[in-house]
Design brief:
The complex is a heterodimer of chains A (319) and B (499). Chain A has 17 helices and no strands. Chain A is mainly alpha-helical. Chain B has 499 residues and is an alpha+beta fold. In chain B, helix 2 (45-61) packs across helix 6 (180-193). The longest helix of chain B is centred in the first third of the chain and has 26 residues, at 90-115. Classes of the chains: A mainly alpha (319), B alpha+beta (499). At the A-B interface, helix 1 and helix 7 of A face helix 9, strand 7 and strand 9 of B.
């Protein structure tokens, strides 16, 4: 496959995965603010919707653009603002531009879906729905992204095209999760002194929900939600598709499929880095992670992901 | 001017001017249009509107767009699609097809001759200075051999119909003609918009175009490998025809490459892939000659591949269309094409040209200058409706400006009488109205000559306009070449609501 095309594909997936994540985070934090918990949080620190800015690392950019912006400015900033590179509209626009430049390698269905999502977000219907009910709007975006993923799964042969899309998606998913955990765990720590058991539950629930993991966790844990249990689940569960371990494994599988390597070794530096992270996640238990320092661990995960991205760039995109 | 008012449904207020594709002089539908006419006459305005809307939606969602220049980075638009199909009977098509094949063979022989023996210049059939002065003439191609001696692998020959219903060639596009993706997509949309009508009309299929195009490209592979690597080369996503480039690459299952994806090494062209360099044997390029290789041609161009010309010289790359075919697109060459048919093929031309005045001829020039208000003046290297003077629609100042330009450089222009293009019922504001149309059929020339049945019918949407170009607000419609006799009447879909 052309190197330029491979790079485009990788970014299409990363952008769309990020869009889905932003939609989920905004939806979840908006819901949280509607609850009384939002008031508590406002008293104790960052409001839920603002915490999304921290997760996405664009708090400064936001305050620069909207010095006195409140909740509705944050939502709009991350949704419709063309001038902001990390808004959903900008990201879908870039995904769409990349897809337009590589549409001959995608299936017509996959390209059509990206194009439709972009046209929808640019149009009036999206704004109307957003004004009536942000939650329904975000729900629609999540569905569109998942439909894209489904079309990738069901219309593309397992060739390099597919594997680059997979790699981009899972790498982005792991990075998003590291950031979400980092910010949410800190928030949990801050509300702890308030010690209201119910608030801990609300926050853990929100953490799980922002990763679409609530139902899965409950079924597996069979008990009242406990923050550490939730963190452990999101990081180490082998079977949940949005856990860190799952994502790292899949990204690694995709890279091996691209290089033609097998699971006993590694053909590229990127595979080695991801493989080592994967075995950490497989053999560590949560106590060890906590012992080493959760924040420290999450930072390491992120830096590994950046190195992996760099290596893949060197190996495949600069050919 | 004959004029008639109809009263059936959407044909209410229909006016007939000049040659009408659907209605004969007596106002009755022509035999092959009768069934279509009867079906359309029963449709309500809402029904028509909804089908029109459906067509737009399908195109927008699939990103079937072209890019308009001159506004920022370029604005993507869909070409307006008219849901009323244009019909061509099997007899009419048979003549067109033979005429096109003949013309393309003659043009090809001409290009070969111009860059090799130059017999036609020595025999003074066409003035040498016109040929070597043509904007598409490339000095670098003199003596350059191309696989099978074929130059014009893909051409789009524009045809119009005059007031007598005669098909005439308006111009030849032998460089990088575009529009074939709209032909294929219009058909796809039509099958969704008027499925039953389409089915019963027994229309010649066009789906094999991509396979034929690929066969044509493979036929000029110089490598002799079993499975040559073919790629489509595009200037990039901001090119107005980018959709088409990507569409064709997808339909053929080959890579779509840009100049930056390619490099030249040791006589060959390679593309950069995730598995390292891969040799390219045939390029279907949609990049202009002068932009193909900054070392050989335009140094400032960033679209091409330094060294590509070297691969051509070494005979290691099949290029479609070959370098230098643009010499046929020059409108000053066009008046001589019927002569090419006689000179190279020793046949009489089946398709005639539009009468054309050559401004380098003093007698022609004098005639043109004193009749500007009746003529159309075109720049020889103009396209897309730019650089034209349409006499009857021009102002005195415009005519004076053109007169000055012609006198300053007569080689740059030709003039033709204004021909009233044929008109066709077209959906406008809830009813049907006559609008001018032309036709661009596509001809492939590789292991054999293949003509795509039909082609791109373009419609001038503003009332009375003669300019059908998409860059000037023209639309398109599906073109149906009938196989055998037309149906007597269109059966509905039965229980279901349909057309």
């Amino acid at each position: 496959m052309l190197s330029r095309v491979a790079e485009n594909l990788y970014w299409i997936s990363r952008y769309l995965e990020r869009v889905e994540s932003v939609a989920r985070l905004l939806d979840d934090s908006f819901q949280l603010e509607l609850d009384a918990a939002g008031l508590h949080a406002a008293a104790s620190g960052e409001r839920p919707v603002e915490s999304v800015l921290s997760i996405l690392g664009c708090k400064e950019a936001f305050h620069k653009a909207h010095p006195n912006g409140g909740r509705s400015e944050v939502l709009k900033f991350l949704t419709f603002e063309r001038d902001h590179a990390d808004s959903m509209l900008s990201m879908i626009g870039r995904a769409r531009e990349n897809a337009r430049g590589t549409q001959e390698t995608l299936s017509a269905e996959v390209w059509g879906q990206i194009n439709r999502l972009y046209l929808y977000l640019c149009g009036r219907q999206a704004r109307r729905r957003y004004r009536t009910s942000p939650s329904r709007f975000f729900e629609g975006i999540k569905r569109s992204c998942i439909l894209y993923t489904g079309l990738v799964e069901s219309t593309l042969p397992r060739s390099e095209v597919y594997h680059f899309l997979q790699f981009g998606r899972y790498l982005e998913r792991v990075m998003q999760l590291s950031r979400i955990l980092g910010v949410k765990v800190q928030a949990l720590r801050q509300v702890e002194p308030l010690a209201a058991g119910s608030l801990r539950v609300v926050y853990s629930t929100s953490l799980l929900q922002s990763c679409s993991a609530y139902d899965a966790y409950i079924r597996q844990a069979h008990e009242q939600i406990d923050p550490l249990g939730a963190v452990g689940y999101l990081m180490l569960d082998p079977d949940f598709p949005r856990s860190m371990r799952f994502g790292v494994d899949r990204a690694c599988v995709a890279l091996r499929a691209i290089s033609g390597g097998d699971e006993h070794g590694f053909a590229t530096e990127a595979e080695r880095l991801l493989g080592r992270l994967g075995s950490d996640l497989r053999f560590l238990d949560l106590d060890e992670v906590i012992h080493r320092g959760l924040e420290q661990f999450l930072t390491e995960v992120l830096s590994t992901c950046h190195r992996v991205a760099h290596e893949v760039h060197q190996t495949y995109f600069l050919a | 001017m004959n004029r008639r008012v109809f009263d059936a449904g959407p044909f209410d207020q229909y006016e007939r001017h000049g040659f009408d594709e659907m209605f004969a002089e007596d106002g009755q539908p022509r035999p092959h249009y009768a069934a279509l006419y009867n079906r359309l006459a029963t449709l309500s305005a809402e029904d028509m509107e909804s089908r029109h809307h459906m067509a737009d939606l399908v195109m927008r969602r699939q990103g079937i767009t072209f890019t308009v220049y001159g506004r920022g980075e370029g604005l993507e638009q869909i070409i307006p699609f008219d849901p009323i199909p244009r019909l061509i009977s099997s007899e009419e098509w048979e003549t067109i097809e033979r005429g096109l094949e003949q013309r393309v063979r003659a043009l090809n022989a001409f290009v070969h001759d111009v860059y090799h023996d130059r017999l036609i210049l020595k025999d003074r059939v066409v003035p040498a200075e016109l040929v070597v002065g043509a904007s598409g003439y490339q000095r670098e191609c003199v003596g350059l051999r191309v696989p099978r001696d074929i130059y014009i692998h893909i051409s789009g020959i524009d045809l119009i119909r005059d007031e007598h219903g005669r098909f005439l060639v308006l111009e030849d596009n032998a460089r990088t003609p575009s529009g074939v993706s709209y032909v294929l997509n219009n058909r796809h949309v039509m099958k969704q918009v008027f499925p039953f009508l389409f089915q019963q009309y027994n229309v010649r299929p066009i789906d094999d175009y991509p396979a034929n195009l690929l066969a044509t490209l493979r036929a000029i592979d110089p490598s002799g490998r079993d499975d040559p690597t073919v790629a489509v080369m595009t200037p990039g996503v901001y090119n107005s025809a980018y959709f088409e480039h990507s569409f064709l690459a997808r339909q053929m299952g080959v890579e779509l490459v840009e100049g930056r994806d390619l490099f030249f090494d040791g006589g060959y062209v390679y593309m950069r892939t995730t598995r390292g360099p891969r040799r390219v044997d045939v390029l279907y390029r949609r990049v202009d000659d002068r932009s193909l290789d900054p070392l050989a041609f335009d140094r400032t161009s960033v679209l091409g591949v330094p060294g590509l010309y070297g691969a051509l010289r070494a005979g290691n790359l099949g290029l479609a269309n070959a370098l230098g075919t643009g010499v046929c697109d020059d409108k000053a060459i066009y008046p001589f094409v019927p002569e090419f048919v006689r000179y190279y093929l020793r046949e009489e031309p089946i398709l005639a040209n539009v009468e054309t005045f050559r401004l380098t001829e003093p007698s022609h020039r004098q005639h043109v200058l004193s009749n500007l208000e009746k003529l159309v003046v075109k720049a020889v290297d103009g396209s897309g409706g730019y650089g034209m003077l349409i006499g009857p629609a021009s102002t005195k100042a415009q005519r004076e400006e053109f007169a000055r330009k012609i006198e300053a450089d007569p080689r740059r222009f030709i003039a033709q009488p204004t021909i009233s293009l044929s008109q066709h019922p077209t959906f406008v504001d809830g009813r049907l109205a006559g609008r001018h149309i032309d036709l661009r059929p596509f001809v492939l020339f590789g292991d054999q000559v293949r003509v795509l049945p039909g082609g791109l019918t373009r419609v001038a949407l503003p009332k009375g306009s003669l300019v059908v170009n998409s860059s000037q607000g023209g639309g398109t419609k599906d073109t149906w070449v009938l196989r055998g006799d037309p149906p007597e009447k269109i059966e509905g879909p039965g229980e279901l609501q349909g057309d």
